[in-house]
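Hey, quick one: can you model this chain's 3D structure?
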Amino acid sequence: QVQLVESGGGLVQPGGSLRLSCAASGITFKLYSMKWYRQVPGRQRELVATITTDSTTNYVDSVEGRFTISRDNGWNTVYLQMNSLKPEDTAVYYCNANRQAFNFWGQGTQVTVSS
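Sure thing. Here's the predicted structure for all 115 residues.
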């Protein structure tokens, strides 16, 4: 079966850094675009970052210059390096694997930015 296992969430102070990881199994990882979404209760889920099969990256404006998405096809893992974190980055972060009609999701990991 397909499984996306996330790790790296937690509580950090404003200005701090955190790295999220998402390890995939059950798919041919190199054929999938990988994405990170985030969601705050009561708000729509937001696409944060994308990395394509050829490693082209895209970011939502609010994280541009602070977040970096990367992938390691050998370890079937996508990462989200988050720097200069702000309280408004607080959310549940979800990993997504996408290939044409196929979409798979991780369980979500909580990121809280607070003093």
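One thing worth noting: DSSP finds no helices and eleven strands in the chain.
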